[in-house]
Batch of 2 targets.
Target 1
Amino acid sequence: MFPADVRGYAQAAAVQDTKPPIAVFGLDGTYASALYTAAAKTSALETTWKSLTALAEVFRKDTKLSVILNAPTLSSSDKSQIIQELQRHMGGQDKGDTVKNFLKTLSDNNRLGILQGVCEKFATIMGAARGEMEMGVTSAAKLDSKILQRLETAVAKSEYSQGKKLKVVSKVNPDIMGGLVVEIGDRTIDLSVSSRIAKMNKLLTDTL
C-alpha cells in the first residue's frame, strides 16, 4: 500500500503513457514514479527531468547536502530555506512548479532525505522512456572520460546492451579496492579486486 501522500500526489493515471515505463523500487522509487506520473499528466516531463538533473548535480558537488537533508532536527523554517535554495539551483527550469510542489510534498512528510535517491530513480525511469539502458560503472577512483567511453563502446557491441543506447553512470567506491563493477540491466559484472580477494579467501577456507 502506497503512503497516502503519494497516492494523493499521483492519482491513478487515466492515460497509459502517463505511467512509468519501468518499475523502480524503494520509497525513493515510489516517489520518483509518482513524480513521473504527475509530470506526464501535465506535459512537464522534460522540464521536470532538467530540474532533477540540476539537483542531481548539486548532490554530486556537495556531498554534505544528503547529510543535511537527513538531519532529524530540521525545522519548518530550515526546510523552507532549503527548498528555496534548491529552486535557485534549478535555474527557472521548473515550469508549472511541478518540482517545487513535489519538494514541498517531501518536506511536509519529512522525506527530503530521499531526494537524492528520487533523482537517481527518476533518471532511470526517463532513460527507459527514451529507450536507453543505464550502465553503472563503479571504480575505486574516478575514471577518465576516455576510459568510460571505451568501456561504453565495448559493452554497446555486446549482448549485454540488448541493442539499446547506453547511459553511463559513473560511481566511486574505494571499498572495491581496484578494478571495476559494471551493472547493466539485471546483470552485474564484478571485476573488482575486493571480489577477487573474497573468492580467494573462500577457496582457501573451503580447502582447509
Note: The chain has nine helices and four strands.
Target 2
Amino acid sequence: MTTPRAFIIRHGETEWSLNGRHTGSTELPLTPNGEKRIRATGKALVGDDRLIVPSNIAHIYVSPRKRAQRTLELLDLGCCDNLPWKDNAEQARPSDSIVRTNAKVQITADVREWDYGDYEGLTSAQIRQQRREKGLNENWDIWRDGCPGGESPKDVSTRLDRLITDIRSRFHGKVMGKPKHEVEDIPGDVLLVAHGHILRAFAVRWIGKELTETSLLLEAGGVGTLSYEHHSIDEPAILLGGAFMVSVVENAEEDGQPGHKK
C-alpha cells in the first residue's frame, strides 16, 4: 500500500544561522561551508535508492528567500522544468544532464520564515534584554508570544494549515492507501525547502498540535520526514527514522572491500 511523504529541508548555513540571529526577510547567502554541506546532503539522501527518490516527487514548495532557493539548486534533484527564479540562459542544461523528476517547483510565501518583526536580526539573548528594558516578561517564547511587529503563532498556523490542506488534497490524497502497482506512475511525495522556525511549526501543525507544544530541532541543512500511520490520511505522523535501502547497504559493503574500484 502507498503512503506518501513530505520531506522538509532547512536551507544551508548562513552567517546569521551561525551566530543565532533571527533571519526572516533579510536576504543572506549560504556560507561556503553551507553550500558544501548541502551538496553532500544531496549526494547522500537523493537518488533512486536513497531517502528522497526524485521520480517519486510530485511537487516542490520553496520559500521566496534566496538562501532556500540556492539550497534547492545544490540538492541537484534533476528538475525537468526551469527553476522559476532563473532565466533560460542561466539554466541551459548540458546535453548529458539527467532529468530525474517532473515535479513542478512553486515559490510560495506560505513557507517563508516566521516574520520576526521588531526582532529581525537579533539573537535570543538580545531579545530578552530588550524586553527586560521595556518592562516586559523576558521569558520570551516565540511559539507562545510571537513577534511584535511581525507574526503571531495564529498567523503562522493559518498559513501552514492552508499549505497542508493543499498538499493533502492535490497530491497525497491521490495515492494514499492504493496498491503500489496502481499508482506506480503517479508520484505522491512532496518536498519543502524553507527555514528553521517555519518548518518546525509545519511539522507540529502536520500532526494537528498547537505551536506551544513544539519541542523540535532542525539544524541548518537538516532534513525531516513527515508521513502517515496505517496508510491513512487522517493519521498524520512524524517519521522519526526509516530503514536503509538494501541496495545502499550492499553498495557500502562493496565499497569497503579491499581492492574494490568504482
Note: The longest strand covers residues 57-62.
